[in-house]
Specification:
Elements lengths: L20 E6 L3 H11 L4 E6 L2 H8 L6 E4 L8 H11 L4 E6 L4 H9 L4 E4 L4 H28 L3 H10 L3 E5 L5 E4 L2 H6 L3 H4 L13 H8 L12 E6 L12 E13 L8 E11 L1 H15 L9 H18 L2 E9 L2 H8 L1 H17 L6 E6 L2 E9 L3 H13 L4 E3 L2 E3 L3 E8 L6 H17 L4 E4 L2 H23 L3 E10 L4 E13 L3 E3 L5 H7 L2 H21 L6 E5 L10 H12 L6 E6 L7 H13 L3 E7 L6 H6 L4 E4 L1 H5 L6 H16 L3 E5 L4 H9 L4 E3 L7 E2 H10 L12
Parallel strand pairs: 1-2, 1-3, 3-4, 4-5, 16-17, 19-21, 21-22, 22-23, 23-24, 24-25, 25-26
Antiparallel strand pairs: 6-7, 6-10, 8-9, 9-10, 11-13, 11-16, 12-13, 14-15, 18-19, 18-26, 18-27, 19-20
């Protein structure tokens, strides 16, 4: 067989008549169909819709649809079944899968079922528009080829033209495996001219690692159904010359069959060589690899995700058990990461995560695995540890590396981390146990002040279990609402000898633990998000009780209620307070909302606006524990508060021989009076403290010297019969 010469086989074909392109949108959501019908509309296009798979199949049987835009999840037939039916029926319509099912397996299955592209429904609409344009252009080319086939089906020129214009490499080999024909596509894909390959052995274009695999396909003697089909082989590009390629190899699927001829006078055909077609699937392989990578890696940092980490941990445990080795697991949480997101936005938060991942990885050994669990949480697998101290050394190294600040929004930010460590076999023998115990150890160091590491001990588990139990109990108590009780501590005017108000303080009658003070469960409520519901319970019960006392004539009492900083993170706080006041017909100026001093510094602009709303509604606002933080006078000037409470730590140290506390209280009093604010001292326990406070111009006081917090009934008795009665108490004539 002689090589086919390089002849111009291009047939002269008249222009095709304009034929409307047909698009069929199949989706059970009418709004989606209508929206994309409008987006895809263009001159020369006919767009139809179907809402079910059966309707789509019935329409496709007419075999005149160019593009099928198909949702996988239809009410009657799955999209993949429709695609399989189309293959079985030889329906020539090109398919674009357009689905809300973002599963990686669905994407891969759709591509393998012959989908031209897989477009996610919640992505950019332009992706679907561009995909439809590409398919229609391809259909136009296919239509041109089909028309040429009809007009020139008996012409050898047509067949040679199609071979030359094929997007695939078409070749013929002699019995020795040398090229005797190859089409021009080889130049575009591999960089070789036709002349450079004619007479050369096929091995010059096969990747060395695939030579053994390729030998059977390039020497194929079988024909028909038994011949090689879709054999995946890597072909090498030319490594010299003027052409430049992104890589030195492409991935192809190769189909080949033997060629046979008849010699003159012979009765049997003899083998004359092999012909085949190699299709470039490099982009498809890249897409599949990308999808597979995304299934097991975090897209932001490129690190393994929790699925891949758990798989590697399981393998490492098996090896450690077989070899009698020790391994470690770290659970890492970036401290104050939410502050970065809230202050600078998620983009800067993402940049911090990527920078942290780079630094943390540099602290590890080559065989260690750093993974992102999600959010600001990371895990580390430390195989083959000599001693338990090896994990601690790596943690120390990581903490030291983080002493260098990160650049966040153009400024330095010192990030710290809390690291929990668990070891095999001491702290667990399964991936679940090791991860859980490392997580518990991480929360232990967080509770101790963050910026450090702890190795898991069994005592931590019992404490963690108690915390989980308490959390569940608190949630049940909040749902029932009958386990809480409000106590009231009087606030008195020392000079007038009367009770001027009271602070509402919650107590929890725990079914097993008995009466619990707020310090034992309020932090847990704040951490778990239950604090808002708890605040609503306090507001409802306290205002209901105040309404009862006001109906009995105690109309001058001022009710103080503590609100959590978490309450101020919600924009509906003013509406919640107004709703409770209206429900019990309480005038707003009878209620004093106490806020912490730290609230002055956190998200100041937003909180200033919220406090202004509270004040405009008539509510009073006090700063609790004043003097324990570092708020500036500027904050105090900008927050429209009505009073400040001197923290009990200053009052506790108040005595004639302790001048520092007296000086601080004197300074706070001066500040309060200069701003026209009421001042109240809490934690007053002795007559000496009372006397000194009076000398320092602090008349309103609260503390055990006057009364402990009391249940409602006892507090009412206090109003009537104590040494500090309410000025509104009923008079006996």
């Amino acid at each position: 067989m002689k090589a086919i010469p390089n002849v111009d086989f291009s047939p002269q074909i008249p222009d095709l008549p304009e034929i409307a392109s047909s698009i069929l949108i199949v989706d059970d959501d009418q709004r989606v169909r209508a929206t994309y019908r409008q987006l895809l509309a263009a001159e020369g296009r006919s767009i139809e819709e179907c809402s079910t798979g059966n309707e789509a199949c019935h329409r496709l049987e007419r075999r005149d649809v160019d593009v099928l835009i198909l949702d996988l999840k239809l009410p009657d037939i799955h999209g993949l079944e429709i695609m399989a039916w189309m293959v079985d029926k030889h329906i020539p319509t090109a398919v674009i899968v357009f689905s809300a099912d973002e599963s990686i397996h669905s994407a891969i299955r759709a591509l393998r079922h012959g989908a031209f592209e897989f477009v996610r429904k919640h992505g950019d609409p332009e992706e679907l528009i561009d995909a439809a344009d590409r398919v229609l252009r391809r259909r136009r080319i296919e239509r041109e080829h089909a028309l040429m086939t009809v007009r020139l089906k008996h012409s050898e020129r047509l067949h040679r033209f199609l071979v030359e214009q094929s997007p695939d490499i078409v070749y013929t080999l002699d019995t020795n495996g040398c090229f005797i024909f190859v089409n021009g596509r080889v130049h575009a894909l591999l960089g070789y001219t036709r002349e450079e390959l004619l007479g050369q052995h096929y091995s010059v274009i096969v990747h060395p690692d695939d030579l053994e695999h390729a030998r059977f396909a390039f020497n194929e003697r079988r024909i028909g159904d038994r011949a090689s089909t879709n054999v995946e082989i890597r072909l090498q590009t030319k490594t010299h010359g003027v052409r430049h390629f992104e890589s030195r190899a492409i991935v192809t699927i190769l189909s080949a069959q033997g060629l046979y001829g008849t010699l003159e006078g012979a009765t049997r055909k003899h083998f004359t060589g092999t012909s085949g077609v190699a299709r470039d699937i490099t982009e498809r392989k890249k897409a599949e690899e990308t999808i597979a990578f995304q299934a097991f890696h975090d897209l932001l940092t490129g690190l393994p995700n929790r699925v891949l980490f758990k798989d590697r941990l399981g393998i490492a445990l098996t090896q450690a058990q077989r070899k009698g080795q020790r391994l470690g697991v770290m659970f890492i949480d970036i401290d104050r990461f939410k502050l970065v997101n809230d202050t600078y936005g998620h983009h800067e938060g993402d940049e911090l995560l990527k920078s942290f991942a780079g630094r943390a990885r540099a602290c590890l050994r080559s065989g260690d695995t750093l993974a992102r669990q999600g959010g600001d949480e990371f895990t580390v697998l430390l195989p083959d540890l000599s001693t338990g101290d090896d994990a601690a050394l790596i943690a120390v190294k990581m903490l030291a590396e983080l002493k260098r600040p990160f650049r966040v929004a153009g400024a330095d930010f010192l990030a710290t981390v809390s690291i929990g460590i668990s070891l095999y076999p001491e702290n667990g023998e399964t991936p679940e146990d090791l991860l859980r115990n490392a997580d518990i150890a991480m929360y232990q160091i967080k509770g101790e002040g963050k910026n450090g590491y702890r190795q898991y001990t069994p005592e931590m588990h019992s404490g963690h279990s108690l915390r989980i139990t308490l959390e569940n109990d608190l949630r049940v108590a909040l749902e029932k609402g009958d386990q809480f009780e409000l106590y009231y501590q009087p606030q008195v005017s020392a000079s007038q000898g009367t009770t001027v108000g009271m602070e509402a303080l919650i107590r929890w009658h725990h079914p097993k633990n008995g009466l619990m003070a707020p310090g034992n469960f309020i932090p847990l409520a704040e951490e778990t998000g239950m604090i808002v519901g708890l605040s609503d319970w306090v507001l409802d019960k306290a205002l209901s009780q105040l309404a009862d006392w006001r109906s009995k004539g105690f109309t001058s009492l001022q009710l103080a209620i503590n609100l959590s900083p978490k309450d101020f993170e919600r924009d509906d706080l003013p509406e919640r307070l107004t709703r409770h006041l209206d429900a019990h017909a309480i005038p707003a100026d009878a209620v004093d909302i106490e806020i912490t001093e730290s609230l002055l510094m956190k998200d100041a602009e937003k909180n200033i606006a919220l406090v202004k709303q509270l004040r405009s509604s008539g509510l009073r606002v006090s700063i609790d524990d004043f003097g324990t933080r570092y708020s500036s006078l500027n904050y105090l000037r900008r927050f429209p508060v009505t009073s400040i409470k001197i923290d009990q730590s200053f009052v506790r140290d108040l005595n004639p021989h302790h001048h520092n506390s007296a000086a601080i209280i004197h300074a706070i009093s001066s500040i309060a009076y200069s701003f026209g604010l009421r001042i109240l001292a809490e934690g007053v326990e002795t007559e000496a403290q009372r006397h000194l406070l009076s000398e320092l111009a602090c008349d309103d006081m609260q503390g055990f010297l006057f009364s402990r917090p009391l249940p409602a009934a006892e507090f009412e008795e206090f109003l009537n019969a104590s040494a500090f009665p309410s000025p509104d108490r009923p008079r006996v004539s």
